[in-house]
Design a protein that fits this description.
Helix content is 70%, strand content 0%. The chain is mainly α.
Length: 50
């Protein structure tokens, strides 16, 4: 954006602790959901197809 330093961008990056905690919880939930889905769908079965 043409700023002389990255410190200028920091002025526009205000994120509260509550927002960070919410995002971390959502991302963590998605990661575990995908991992559980892979287990349930038989990830071992994909090895048999090789």
């Amino acid at each position: 954006m043409g700023w002389s330093s990255t410190a200028m961008a920091a002025r526009y990056q205000h994120v509260t602790g509550g927002i960070l905690a919410d995002v971390a919880q959502r991302v963590g939930g998605l990661i575990w959901e995908v991992a559980n889905d892979a287990e349930d769908s038989g990830a071992e079965g994909s090895e048999e197809a090789r």
